[in-house]
Amino acid sequence: MSERILVWDWPTRVFHWSFALSFAGAYLTAESERYRDLHLALGYVFGALILFRLIWGVIGTRYARFSSFSFAPIAVLSYLKSLSQNQAQHFLGHNPAGAIAIFLLLGLGLLISLTGIALEWELGAEDWEELYEETHEWVANFMLLVVFVHIAGVLVSSWLHHENLARAMITGYKQGQASAAIQGRFLWLGVLILIGILVFLVMYLS
Amino acid sequence: MFKLKTLTQALACTLLLSAGWVQAETPQDFLSSYQAAAKAADTKFQGFSARRGEQFFKTTHGNDWSCASCHTSNPATVGKHASTDKAIDPLAPAANPKRFTNPRKVEKWFKRNCKDVLSRECTALEKGDILTFLMAIQ
Description:
- With 206 residues, chain A is mainly alpha-helical.
- Chain A contains seven helices and two strands.
- Helix content of chain B is 54%, strand content 3%.
- Chains A and B meet through helix 2 and helix 5 of A and helix 1 and helix 5 of B.
- Chain A: It is a multi-pass membrane protein.
């Protein structure tokens, strides 16, 4: 019997939306020196969130763990094929296409964070600055593209599964067997991350 | 270790050069291309002026910032970012030989910084005046 069960814990949801917002904010403040402080602050939040997610991917709740959505390439192809044939395979946690987006976005985000830090802290040889700068910008643009593909994928999957995936990432709930629900909500950790971000932003920008 | 570092840097530079990311040019090359562009834009173009460039550099253009807000009124010295206080290498080629050697970099930063100071891109005449001013600094 299918009922409303918790799938995404608080830290995973707080991470998802903070990650999205910090990326959007940093992207929008990249072109002007006037917003450089805000760009840097959002960049540090963005980088710290990635580090958190890498840890949470190992010790977090069931569907937040990398092991729960490390699919073989063949599984990804099979999922995409099932979508195109309108017989979408259903996954309670991340589907294989979403999993690709997660690994790609985390990897690209890590590259953006490292090159940004290298630029601002002037790490490495001076001649490498140009390479950092170009990589930072190119990868950020590529990541934006992946974000758009991810959003399109969420819309398509939501429609085919008759399941609002974006809402699930807000509320944490999906329809499923009671036995498949996660046990801990980790509200305290979600709140701690949010407070950490806000305190950091206020302190950095004042 | 030192040798390995030098070797790695040399390799990276070679790669960048061959990829066209770094094209070694001189400030004079930039001046020539701005001159050609300025002539094309205005047939009455009389040449660049260091004095005009200096004035342009040091005054605000409707916004709160001037070029000197970050690069200071003496571009031969280390500048300071107006919002982050980060040190900025000297802009005058005499004080920093790396300046005005890489077209990608020069055009990218002219575009960004002109937008911050003037809310528009700089004309070839303005760029030429600024560069003439910077090259006159010893």
